[in-house]
Amino acid sequence: MKRLIILLLMTSLIFTGCQTKAAKNNVEDIKTETQTESTGESNPAEGIDLSDLVIKTYDGKEINKETYKNNKVTVLNLWGTWCGPCVEEMPDFEKVSQAYKDKGVEILGLALDSSEDEVKELKDTLKITYPLLKENDQTKEILSSKFDYVPVTLFIDSEGKVLKSFIAGGTDEAGLTKAIEALINE
Predict the structure, then answer these.
(1) Between 20 and 30 A from 88 (CA), which of 120, 125, 126, 156?
(2) Is 39 helix (H, G, I), strand (E, B) or coil?
(3) Is 49 helix (H, G, I), strand (E, B) or coil?
(4) CATH value at residue 98
């Protein structure tokens, strides 16, 4: 019985994602969102222009408008080291990153509410090669404040605008590949 309860709790976390620390601290501010295609939820970040946003990676590089300009689609995964479903999907993001790196698709991971040491340790442990980005005041204001949970995967066009399509909650290699294929074949 105890195993069944633990299994049910873990399954619900995998399918629902994790609340951000800000949301946990401000439960009264949690907004009810409308739904995506799969869940019926709409993308609260849709249309946001990220072209003027400069984000540093944990390796010291800059992500800016040139990044978007050089890609058909840029995939931005919002995640946290403290979020089980986020960490679980990272190896699948790595596989997709390798499969699409020469096809005009770049995957980026924006670590929310996570220490630099935790991010670097996780990157090394999971052998992640796609760029992991440092959260800053601009990313908090423009992006992470739009979501009360992670993981969230956004898709950005070559002009730096967040597209309507997004993945709310965890995904896997097949789900991510399907979403990318739909966007690059439009």
Answers:
(1) 156
(2) coil
(3) strand
(4) 3.40.30.10
User: What is the length of the chain?
Assistant: 186
Band (pLDDT 50/70/90 cuts) for residue 19 is low
Convert 133-163 to b/e letters by CB count within 10 Å (16 or more is b).
bbbeeebeebbbebbbbbbbbbbbbbebbbb
- Domain containing residue 24: 2-184
Check the CA dihedral 96-99-101-102 and report its sign. Answer: negative
Q: Measure the CA dihedral 91/94/99/105, to 10°.
A: 140
Number of domains in the chain: 1
> Which residue's structure tokens are 């800059």?
62
Lowest mean pLDDT of 30-44, 68-82, 125-139, name the range. Answer: 30-44
CB of 169 closer than 8 Å to CB of 85: yes
DSSP assignment letter at 113: S
Q: What is the pTM of this model?
A: 0.81
